[in-house]
Design goal:
Length: 605
């Protein structure tokens, strides 16, 4: 199993040299305490916790898994002790307001923490990660009493949280939700129904679990307009904040899964459980989606994190494993064979992993600044700021979630491939990373759902292409600034062409969709992937530009680091970015190639 090492040098490169986070934090209303020294100290301490505590539990947690006994879930050995250390360190409330027990730091600090935790041990990271969703919901939509009762112990890490959305008959189509909420004389509600695929639905890490549940009132309109949101705790709370009576909510089963076996994925039964309405009646989806963009960025980390872990394992193995001779001649003449890192095809796989990991991390850190501004808008009650940055974040979110999880899964498969047959054997840990990563392309909306959200909602319906125009304008401004440098000119010209092509494709699809509505669905996946490759190209060009500048200014102490950035950027533009053109061609293909078969023709005999 690869031993995780936090990529602090690369993280600091992005924070301090590419995106100038010190200046960014200085301009935030909640950024005063996020000084460079404070940020560096937090990153270092989080890296230590992840490397020394979480990483060693990754393989053992997979082997042991979770166990359901008499309605209670037992997590793998060591998880509870690790969680106690996590909670006592104040990590859960890192980016939440101090008045509710948090440390009040910007939202992006939580993302950097999540990246390291998710890379070291994604199944473990899901437990506190689900609590963040519940915390954000209560923070934005809860009453003052609800915040005092439920948010404070969640922020302190004493209690955990979940999001209970999916039901047996519906996943993405939440308009089919059947869970009932019956009003009671005391102002509470009786919640009855079954939810499935509930991560962290039941476990032994916290003394209480606060479920955020979608349900319907008796007179609610049909479809998505008739869904309300409720707080339904495992244990009710007494007036003094202590645990009260056990609520009528229980875990009926644990899902048997391909991966993330140390994360408890539960079937949750609500049998007339006491619930508390959060937000307005029949506005549950609106309340839920106010934090969904941030949640999906969190899922996008599962593309970058496991790819990083797989790359670290594959690189170490490639430097040690000997097999055959390099085609250009002996590289290790004193040994019976050369190390496999000297073979061009192995280099191709490693560089693909490296380009995906570092390019993906840059995409995440770019978007995290939008999240910071949006959260500040909420804290400042500035609706215009919230709307502005929610729109910006909303455009890039499906790209991050869909594109990065697909490429992250590709990268973990390449890591296993570097090991050859040994990668298929469990003791090396590479196959576990593959199994654990696949779920990222599925939950919080499959890649197809993200693609429809991007093209159908964010680009065509909501902005009529303006989202693409605004984003490509940023790319164009950057490319024009660096095109005068002959070293950067090839990348700059490529970016200018891509920006124009991205707008052209958007207009073409919009015109075709007027006559053929199926075009939106048939083209959506290719549009998302094309958008992702363009976005990542922009990030690699920015990183290469900084690296050139640093080398010009005498960055001798990090010369190898900057040279590697430039080399990887060149590899991305020459070897990976050409994939975008295949997606461009495919998205414009006639929908007849997809829709021409009658349903009966899919049958087999």
């Amino acid at each position: 199993m690869p031993a995780y090492k936090a990529p602090l040098r690369d993280m600091r490169f992005l924070l301090n040299e590419v995106f100038d986070y010190p200046a960014h934090y200085a301009g935030l209303s909640n950024g005063a305490d996020a000084t460079p020294d404070m940020v560096d100290a937090i990153l270092s301490e989080c890296a230590k916790f992840c490397e020394e505590v979480l990483s060693p539990l990754y393989a053992s947690g997979d082997e042991e898994g979770c166990v359901l006994e008499n309605g209670e879930v037992r997590t793998p050995k060591g998880f509870k002790e690790a969680y106690n250390q996590y909670a006592q360190g104040g990590w859960q409330g890192l980016s939440h307001p101090t008045e509710f027990g948090g440390q009040g730091l910007p939202a992006s600090m939580g993302l950097f923490k999540q990246e390291m935790m998710g890379t070291a041990n994604w199944p473990f990271a899901m437990y506190p990660g689900l609590s963040l969703g519940a915390m954000n919901t209560i923070l934005l939509h809860g009453s003052e009493d609800q915040k005092q009762t439920w948010l404070i112990p969640l922020t302190e890490g004493r209690w955990g949280g979940t999001m209970c959305l999916t039901e047996p008959q519906c996943g993405t189509d939440l308009g089919q939700v059947k869970t009932k909420a019956e009003p009671q004389a005391d102002g509470t509600y009786k919640i009855t129904g079954t939810k499935i695929f509930i991560s962290s639905g039941e476990h032994d890490l916290n003394e209480n679990i606060v479920h955020i549940v979608l349900a319907r009132l008796p007179d609610a309109p049909k479809g998505t307009r008739g869904i309300s949101l409720f707080i339904v705790p495992k244990f009710l709370a007494n007036p003094d904040g202590s645990l009260g009576a056990r609520n009528q909510v229980s875990c009926g089963a644990l899902e048997k899964k391909m991966g993330i076996k140390a994360s408890a994925t539960c079937v949750m039964n609500f049998d007339g459980a006491t619930g508390f309405l959060i937000g307005p009646e029949n506005k549950g989806l609106e309340c839920m989606f106010t934090f969904m963009n941030t949640a999906r960025i969190g899922t996008a980390i599962q593309g970058v994190g496991p790819a990083e872990l797989s790359y670290q394992g594959a690189l170490a193995y490639a430097k040690e494993r000997r097999s055959m001779r390099a085609l250009s001649g002996k590289k290790n003449p004193d040994s019976v064979a050369d190390t496999i890192i000297n073979h061009a095809d192995v280099r191709r796989m490693l560089l693909t992993q490296k380009a995906i990991v570092e390019g993906g991390r840059a995409m995440l850190y770019f978007a995290a600044k939008y999240a910071d501004h949006m959260v500040c808008g909420h804290l400042e009650n500035d609706e215009r700021k919230v709307e502005k940055y929610d729109d910006k974040l909303g455009f890039v979110t499906p790209i991050l979630k869909g594109f990065l999880t697909e490429l992250g899964y590709e990268a973990t498969n390449l890591g296993m491939q570097v090991f050859g047959g040994h990668g298929y054997i469990r003791e090396h840990g590479m196959e576990q990373i593959v199994r654990d990563t696949k779920i990222a392309t599925l939950y919080e909306g499959t890649t197809g759902v993200q693609a429809l959200d991007l093209l159908g909602r964010k680009v065509l319906m909501m902005t009529q292409g303006k989202a693409v125009r605004d984003f490509t304008l940023q790319i164009t401004h950057f490319a024009r600034k660096v095109v005068t440098d002959k070293r950067q000119r090839p990348m700059a010209w490529t970016l200018l062409k891509l920006a124009a092509q991205w707008n052209y494709l958007t207009v073409r699809l919009a015109l075709i969709a007027r006559k053929d509505r199926e075009m939106v669905s048939s083209a959506a996946n290719d549009f998302l992937m094309f958008s992702g490759y363009c976005f990542m190209a922009y990030m690699w060009a920015k990183m290469a530009s900084v690296a050139y500048r640093k080398l010009d200014n005498g960055g001798a102490d990090s010369q190898a680091f900057y040279e590697a950035k430039i080399a990887t950027a060149n590899f991305y533009f020459e070897r990976l970015l050409p994939r975008a053109q295949a997606h461009a061609s495919s998205m414009l293909a006639d929908t007849a190639s997809v829709m021409q078969l009658d349903e009966a023709h899919f049958a087999f005999e």
